[in-house]
Design a protein that fits this description.
The structure holds two protein chains of two kinds.
Chain A: H1 4-33, H2 38-45, H3 49-78, H4 82-108
Helix pairs in contact in A: 1-3, 3-4
Chain B: E1 12-21, E2 24-33, H1 40-50, E3 70-73, E4 76-79, H2 85-88, E5 93-97, E6 104-106, E7 109-110, H3 113-121, H4 144-152, H5 160-164, H6 166-170, H7 177-187, H8 195-201, H9 216-220, H10 227-243
Parallel strand pairs in B: 1-5
Antiparallel strand pairs in B: 1-2, 3-4, 3-5, 6-7
Helix pairs in contact in B: 3-7, 4-7, 7-10
Classes of the chains: A mainly alpha, B alpha+beta.
């Protein structure tokens, strides 16, 4: 069940994710093709404000986008609605944010 | 294996017709003489006149204008008065059922109330901005909004798109293709004075943003309209209006 604000949030998060996904794929290929070890990658990312912002923004965009997408599926196929559907959406978003935030913290801090 | 054109009157059709009411029902089978240029409505009428006098179904104009005779034919929504048996028959078989996504009253007649209630909920009513005493608003045929409205305006309210829509089936709150298509024609009507109210009406939880753009509405629309395109237009203008803080 989408209103115009949820629709916009999902579209804007998708627009943000498109370049971030391409950058993420490019960095993965570059890092592994170059034969960098985990320790070498961490030495580049730890303490880096830019990698923190890059993946922090990525995680936020994913949390918003996926929780709204799963909301639609939960409504149409699990028949969740009203307060239950809102709770499901927020919970999904926070779980993704927590998991993603934990991963970003592990690589950047 | 599809039969060649059914042209000989000695051939018969095996027709299964759903009968029942809101509490339930089932299919009953009939043999119907096949005739050239026979429509699905002809078949249903023949069954009612000759075999099943109690069979309930709905039709009026028989020429594709009134939009009252739509039914599911071999699983697909069709306007039965303009659907030739030869074009949809599978072998010799026809399965005829009431429209999907609407409650049944009896047999092939559906309760259309929710379909038309959703037109009202989508603000599908014209709100005039001037009286008959004033000048008629000049609208050029080349005006882009007039062109957009013209592409969507020949709806006959048959509910074929509503029956074809999987989003309606999964989310009963969804306003549906016909009501949203109607709202789009009014959004493009320069004489109408309820633009913001209408943009709000189609932006609620069951509004245009729930469309998955599967385009079954366009595939089955008997008058070849494209409600999915109208809904895409509504998504565009409502998104812009929301970002401007208008809705």
């Amino acid at each position: 069940m989408l209103d115009v604000r949820l629709y916009l949030a999902q579209r804007i998060s998708a627009i943000l994710m498109a370049p971030l996904v391409l950058g993420h794929l490019a960095v993965m290929i570059y890092a592994t093709q170059g034969g960098l070890s985990a320790a070498e990658i961490l030495s580049r990312t730890q303490g880096s404000l830019w990698w923190g912002l890059y993946y922090g923004l990525f995680v936020i965009a994913v949390s918003v986008h996926a929780s709204i997408g799963l909301r639609v599926i939960a409504n149409e196929y699990l028949k969740l609605s009203g307060a239950g559907l809102n709770a499901f959406t927020w919970l999904t978003g926070f779980v993704l944010l927590a998991l993603g935030g934990r991963a970003v913290a592990a690589v950047v801090l | 294996m599809r039969e060649p054109a059914l042209q000989h009157s000695e051939k018969t059709l095996d027709v299964s017709v759903w009968q029942g009411n809101a509490a339930g029902g089932g299919y009953r089978s009939y043999s119907v003489p096949a005739q050239e240029s026979q429509t699905i409505l002809d078949v249903v009428t023949w069954i009612q006149h000759n075999l099943e006098p109690k069979l309930a179904y709905r039709f009026a104009c028989r020429v594709g204008m009134c939009g009252s005779c739509a039914m599911m034919v071999n699983g697909k929504p069709r306007w039965t008065c303009r659907t030739h048996v030869q074009k949809v028959v599978e072998g010799h078989s026809l399965t005829i059922a009431p429209l999907r996504n609407l409650p049944v009253i009896k047999d092939l007649a559906c309760d259309m109330s929710e379909f038309f209630d959703k037109w009202r909920r989508a603000e599908g009513v014209f709100h005039p901005t001037s009286t008959r005493e004033e000048e008629i608003a000049p609208i050029l045929p080349s005006d882009p909004e007039r062109i957009a409205a013209s592409e969507a305006i020949e709806c006959i309210n048959c509910a074929v798109c509503y029956a074809a829509c999987d989003v309606v089936a999964l989310n009963p709150e969804f306003l549906g293709p016909a009501a949203l298509n109607r709202a789009w024609t009014l959004i493009n009507d320069a004489r109408d004075g309820a633009r913001i109210a209408r943009l709000k009406a189609v932006s609620v939880a069951g509004g245009c943003h729930n469309c998955h753009s599967q385009q079954s509405c366009m595939t089955y629309c008997p008058t070849e309209l494209n409600p999915a395109l109208s809904i895409a237009g509504l998504k565009r203008v409502t998104a812009i209006a929301a970002m401007k803080g208008e809705i």
